[in-house]
Amino acid sequence: MDQLLVYGGASLKGRLNVSGAKNAALPILTAALLTQDVLRLHNVPHLRDVTTMLQLLGFMGLQTTVHDDHSLQLDASKINRYEAPYELVKTMRASILVLGPLLARFHSARVSLPGGCAIGSRPVDLHLKALQQMGAEIEVKAGYIEAKAPSGLHGERIIFDTVTVTGTENLLMAACLAKGTTILENAAREPEVVDLAQCLIKMGARIYGAGSDTIRVEGVTELNAASHSIVADRIEAGTFLVAAALTRGHIILDKISPSILDAVIIKLREAGAHIVLTDNSIELSMTTRPKAVNIVTTPYPGFPTDMQAQFMVLNTIAEGASTVTETVFENRFMHVQELIRMGASIQVRGNTAIVIGQSKLTGAQVMATDLRASASLVIAGLAAEGQTLIDRIYHIDRGYERIEEKLGHFGARIERRS
């Protein structure tokens, strides 16, 4: 199992393009199931989760042609299996996203209940309830969702009990080929949902209101060939910006619209960072010790739960005390004990962590527990004195493309060890 050895003390400096977003790429890959024509995708990140999704789609009969590191051609004209087996699903919750497209186009699906990071409950019951409203017959047997819609799906008014990103994406895709009009209320507003909608519209879907909490989809009989470029990864960008702030660095990130990071940028400025924005770049410089900032995670456009761990690291060496409140996932403070090993002062009370800023962190051997916790430990190591050895880094490869190389481009010293 690989480890990362992080050397502290470097001040990050440089300029880099932001990768395509994992959380946009995964649903868009499954959108290829909705058409028998070719879907061409660009700016696809090279990540373990993307590879797993392509293996799953390949098992179903989808043919993939790789044009270069970040461009793919997907052909689902020869799909002959409507199943997502446990062995291909157990490491990635996003595999549930094949359910909606399979039901919509083939009227049948057998999908294993998903796995993934152990950061809390992410039930799929909202997906199943909504698909049943649209005419699907669903049973859960021996860990599998068995679904069929002999007469196809029909349009329906869907009101999600809570905001769900994958639920919105699953139903959005299913609704594209349903008969009639589907209304999704209390829908997720994330940029990745918008990116999926834009790709589907290019394929011929009729979607209105993506990016708001109400999305209307007018079903069509078929979707067609299209070409689409994946939106920039706002979480990768946010992670690098926090790393630069922690190390009192100066970086410029290109190929990203700053508007998708508004909540993060506001908090970085509050912490003392100087930030300059253009239409497609973000420049950050930091010369002083950060100021403590309070964080409350909420669905987009609020502060993203996927940036909570990184900002907790920022607060560990900030001037003053802060609170970090997690409202999205109930088990997302597993990085706290690892940061305490590095000298952080953190107390957890329910879903709130109280952080007292220290003058420094000290390198230690730590263990990654989930994807974003992994990233937080890497950037903590950059800001710490000495060396930090991070175990179980397979999590980080699921969501960050060559993180040691990209941070190395900014001057960080990180070694990958087997």
Question: Mind explaining what this structure looks like?
Answer:
- This protein is an alpha/beta fold.
- 31% of the residues lie in helices and 26% in strands.
- It has 14 helices and 24 strands.
- It has helices spanning 22-31, 48-60, 86-89, 99-106, 125-133, 165-176, 191-202, 234-246, 262-270, 308-316, 336-341, 371-383, 394-399, 403-409, and strands spanning 3-7, 13-17, 38-42, 63-68, 71-75, 83-84, 108-112, 137-141, 144-148, 157-159, 181-185, 206-208, 214-218, 226-229, 250-254, 274-278, 281-285, 295-296, 321-325, 345-349, 352-356, 365-367, 387-391, 413-417.
- Strand 18 (295-296), helix 10 (308-316) and strand 19 (321-325) form a beta-alpha-beta unit.
- The longest helix has 13 residues, at 48-60.
- The termini are close together.
Strand order of the biggest β-sheet: 22-23-1-24
Number of helices: 14
The structural class is alpha/beta
Shape: elongated
| SS elements, strand count | 24
Strand percentage: 25-35%
In percent, how helical is the residue content? 25-40%
N-to-C CA distance: 6 Å
Outline the biggest β-sheet.
4 strands, mixed
Model regions low in confidence, pLDDT < 50 over at least 5 residues: 116-122
Mean of the pLDDT scores?
94
Give me the Rg, rounded. Answer: 21 Å
Concise description?
This protein is of the alpha/beta class and 418 residues long. It has 14 helices and 24 strands.
Draw up the topology in text.
Blueprint: E1 3-7, E2 13-17, H1 22-31, E3 38-42, H2 48-60, E4 63-68, E5 71-75, E6 83-84, H3 86-89, H4 99-106, E7 108-112, H5 125-133, E8 137-141, E9 144-148, E10 157-159, H6 165-176, E11 181-185, H7 191-202, E12 206-208, E13 214-218, E14 226-229, H8 234-246, E15 250-254, H9 262-270, E16 274-278, E17 281-285, E18 295-296, H10 308-316, E19 321-325, H11 336-341, E20 345-349, E21 352-356, E22 365-367, H12 371-383, E23 387-391, H13 394-399, H14 403-409, E24 413-417
Parallel strand pairs: 2-15, 3-14, 6-7, 10-11, 18-19, 22-23
Antiparallel strand pairs: 1-23, 1-24, 3-5, 4-5, 7-9, 8-9, 11-13, 12-13, 15-17, 16-17, 19-21, 20-21
